[in-house]
Amino acid sequence: MVVAEIGGDAVVVIREYNPKTDIESVEQVERNCEVGPSGEYSLHADLLGDPVCRVRNSPKYLMLVAEIVVTKGGNETREIVGMIRGCIKTVTCGRRINRKTNFTPEPQPVFTKLAYILGLRVSPSHRRMKIGLKLVCRMEDWFRDNGAEYSYIATDAANKPSVNLFTGKCGYSNFRNPSVLVHPVFAHRLRIDKQVAIIKLSLSDAETIYRQRFSTTEFFPRDIDSVLKNNLNLGTFLALPKDCPHARSWGGSELFLSDPPESWAIMSVWNCNDVFKLEVKGASWLKKGFVKTTRLLDQVFPFLNLPSLPKIFNPFGLHLLYGLGGEGQFYLKFANALFSYAHNLAKKEKCGVVATEVSSEDPLKLAIPHWKVLSFADLWCIKRLDEDYSDGYVGDWRKSQPDLSFFLDPREF
């Protein structure tokens, strides 16, 4: 616990979140804070009664609250005015070449312990009092105590107050600029190329393919097995030519990797729908009516394949696509087929949107259908927590060039 004076009879206390006593106050702070870019519209998240849900599935996590304590005339009042969430995991930060005798040189992953800050909130009435800064500093102390080498945050690039806090006051630097791609789930199903077969993989097959083909990808989680075994993971799907032997008779991942088709793609789906709901607020009745009309027309005339908006002005859920990757000249064609499959799965589960996040240079950015009006540019900022760490094989990760792609971990999206 950290206590700091803020003037008069008031102090701010930074302490661990207590689910038995704090949940109502924390939910009120969430309601008071807009999420996303400011303007006519605001995006609100309903965490379904679990303020820790966005970090709960990480290997190690913590939630802190900022509480104003006022003592006057022997009476004490307490008010929660801010919060922050953080988690720690081990991820790939680079690669090295294995040059053992009698072996063909192969790239091997280099791992680092990475901390992630998300869900920083301060009530509008208590901003500009350095409460956000105090929350970040206390969380970083916990990161260091648990051996994290780097800390990073993800924020909307247009969220200037957040960017200024982390880069201007907390010592973070711009690191990566990925794109969040969002697509509405239509009332009609999307067609899947008839030349493409889609197989749902077992957990062991999915883990084997990810570890053998993607473990050197930046941000790949070393505990990928825990991600795949999580109840929120709806499955891992492999797209490959319908006429290839593996499509006709699946013999397992080892056989597939020993003789893969020329082109293929893989994808996993995470069910955010059971973790939180989103809702767009601030729209006029006219715009709400337009959205309702597009949906109604699509439901009545599904054969026309009309683009329609989901009920985004009511609470809606999403499915997150992660682990998107593959090989071959026609890899993007197979990735597109997987997207259509995921869209249809989301339709069946009554989700409003499907989303993923890719590097700004990743060819998937052009191959995966998305609506620009719903998508946005993300900004990741990073900080090295202790300069005494060994640079090892990678050097200072902050100064590294981004890979063409990265592995999206769905647990903290």
UniProtKB/TrEMBL annotation:
<dbReference type="Pfam" id="PF00583">
    <property type="entry name" value="Acetyltransf_1"/>
</dbReference>
<keyword id="KW-0808">Transferase</keyword>
<keyword id="KW-0012">Acyltransferase</keyword>
<dbReference type="InterPro" id="IPR000182">
    <property type="entry name" value="GNAT_dom"/>
</dbReference>
<dbReference type="GO" id="GO:0016747">
    <property type="term" value="F:acyltransferase activity, transferring groups other than amino-acyl groups"/>
</dbReference>
<feature type="domain" description="N-acetyltransferase">
    <location>
        <begin position="12"/>
        <end position="191"/>
    </location>
</feature>
<comment type="similarity">
    <text>Belongs to the acetyltransferase family.</text>
</comment>
<protein>
    <submittedName>
        <fullName>Acyl-CoA N-acyltransferase</fullName>
    </submittedName>
</protein>
<dbReference type="InterPro" id="IPR052810">
    <property type="entry name" value="Plant_NAT"/>
</dbReference>
<dbReference type="InterPro" id="IPR016181">
    <property type="entry name" value="Acyl_CoA_acyltransferase"/>
</dbReference>
